[in-house]
Amino acid sequence: MRKIFFLVVATLMLTACNNQTQTTMKENNTEPVLGLGEVVTDNFTGKAWLKYLSTHPETTDCLIYNVTFAPATRNYWHTHSEGQILICTEGEGYYQERGRTKQLLKSGDVVHIPAATEHWHGATPNRQFTHIGITPKASVNQVQWIGEVTDEEYNNAIK
Amino acid sequence: MRKIFFLVVATLMLTACNNQTQTTMKENNTEPVLGLGEVVTDNFTGKAWLKYLSTHPETTDCLIYNVTFAPATRNYWHTHSEGQILICTEGEGYYQERGRTKQLLKSGDVVHIPAATEHWHGATPNRQFTHIGITPKASVNQVQWIGEVTDEEYNNAIK
What residues 22-51 of chain B have any CB closer than 8 A to a CB of chain A? Predict the structure, then answer.
C-alpha cells in the first residue's frame, strides 16, 4: 500500500515537473505574431530568428523582415549605407550607436538608424525581443558587419 | 427596511451596468501596440485612426504608419501608383481587389498590393483591426481615391 502511495506521489511530481519544463520552454521561445522564421547564426552572438515579410524589392525597393532575439542575444556592430528602421513589436531590447550609451527598447518603440552609422541591437538579458526591420532603398543599401559586441559593451549602463 | 433593501439592489444594478459599459468601451477602442494616433475621416466609412511611425521619406523614400479600423470600418476603393504593403498585427480584417472576392486577414498576414490596383481594406463587422502600412517609393507613389465601398460590396462573401 505504501509502495502504491509513493508511486502515485512520484508520478504526480514528475507530471508537475514536466508541465513546468514545458511552460518554461514555451516562455523562452514564444512564437511572435509575425512568425519566427529561420535560425540565423552569422553576425549574431546568441540565438536569433529571421523571417522575411516582403521580398519584392524589385518593385518596392525596400526589404521588410521580422527578427527575434532570444534573451541576451545581439547582432554585431554594423552599418547600413542608407539606414534602417526598427519597429519593436514584442519583448524588450537594446539599441546602441557607437560612442553613445545604449537605449532600452519596448514594444511600440520605433528606431530610425541613420545612414552609415555604426550600431547594434538585441534582446535584454532576460526577455525575448522581436522587431520588424525595414531596409529602405534596398537596391543600393549595403550592410557592413564590423565585429562582435563584447560582454562588457553589452552589459554597459543603459540611458 | 424594505426601502433600504431596494436602494441597495438599485445601487448594485447601477454598478453592474456601469462596469458593463466600461468593458464594452474598452473592447471597442483597444490601444494597439504601436498606438492609435489621430482619428481620420476622409476616405473612410466608419471610424479609423492613423499614427505615423516613420516620417523620414526624404532619407528612406518610404512612409510607415499604423492604421486601426473600428469594427465594420473600411476605407474607399483606391490605388497606389507604386503599390503598398500591409502587415496585419491585431484583430481581423478584409482586403479586396476590384473584380476579386474579398480575403479575410488575421494578425500575422502580409498583403502586397500591386501597383495601380484598385482595392480597399478594413475591419470585419465585429472586430477592431490594425495593420502597419508601408508606402514604398514614397517620392513618386501617388494615392488615388475612387469611391465608397457600398454595404453590399462590404457584405459580399469572403474567399
Answer: 33-35
The pLDDT of residue B86 is 98
Cβ of residue B85 closer than 8 Å to a chain A Cβ = yes
Instruction: Note whether A51 and A37 are within 8 A (CB).
Output: yes
**Using the beta-carbon criterion (under 8 Å), do A85 and B33 form an inter-chain contact?**
no
Tens digits of residue pLDDT in B110-149: 999 999 999 999 999 999 999 999 999 999 999 999 999 9
**Is it the case that residue B93 has pLDDT exceeding 80?**
yes
**pLDDT 10s digits, A93-141:** 999 999 999 999 999 999 999 999 999 999 999 999 999 999 999 999 9
Residue B159, min C-alpha distance to chain A (Å): 22
Q: List the domain boundaries for chain A.
A: 1-30, 38-155
CATH topology of domain B38-155: Jelly Rolls (2.60.120)
pTM for the full predicted model: 0.81
- For B156, the grid coordinates are 459580399
Residues of B in contact with A53 (CB under 8 A): 85, 87, 110
Lowest-confidence segment of A68-77, B29-38, B147-156 by average pLDDT: B29-38
Calculate ∠ Cα A59-A63-A66, nearest 5°: 140
| Ordered alpha helix ranges (H), chain A | 2-28, 57-60, 151-155
Cβ separation of B64 and A85 shorter than 8 Å? yes
Mutation site for A-interface testing, chosen from B31, B33, B107 by largest number of A Cβ within 10 Å: B33
Within 10 A of A35 (CB to CB), how many other CB atoms are there?
15
Rounded CA gap, B92 and B128, in Å? 7
Rg (CA), chain B: 20
Q: How far is B125 from chain A (nearest CA, A)?
A: 22
